Amino acid sequence: PAYNVEKYVEECIESLLNQTIPLDMLELIFIDDASKDGTLSLIQNYEQQYPDIITLIACEENVGLGAVRNIGMTYATGEYIAFIDSDDKVNSNMLQMMYEKMKISNCDIVGCGYRLFNDIGLSRDFGSDEKRYNMHSVENKRRYIIEHGCKNSVCRHMYRKALLDDNNI
User: Fold this and answer.
1) Cα(first)–Cα(last) distance of the chain, in Å?
2) DSSP one-letter code for 69
3) Of the residues 15, 109, 120, 138, which has the fewest C-beta atoms closer than 10 A?
4) Does the predicted TM-score (pTM) go above 0.70?
């Protein structure tokens, strides 16, 4: 999702393009939520440079974060999905590490730690202790997403797309 983030979006895109996972394994879907600043044109420039990797959808009117993520999910074709906000910058190995955990563990959700920065550059770390949850039932999976997946941010997780699609999440 992108809305009025011209100040941050290029750094976000660069952090995604610099992932250690091969770029041909990624599809980067940007939904501009009717930004009023230069966000749309900045993303358009990247889409022109990386047409095989980057897809841009521009909303005609502002629909909000949840709706924008849902729009993006309809375009996603991969087995796994991760949500990155357009003002986020991710570590270069984040997607590869999460993908490898998903494959090794054959799980539906993987999470990672993250760091929040404030306007004066101070940060606070939120770790990611490895935990395993009994996720055999749909109810347990939903409960986990509600309690953990959205508690801090959906942006710190990778999901099996079928889990979200099959359960209308």
Assistant:
1) 17
2) H
3) 120
4) yes
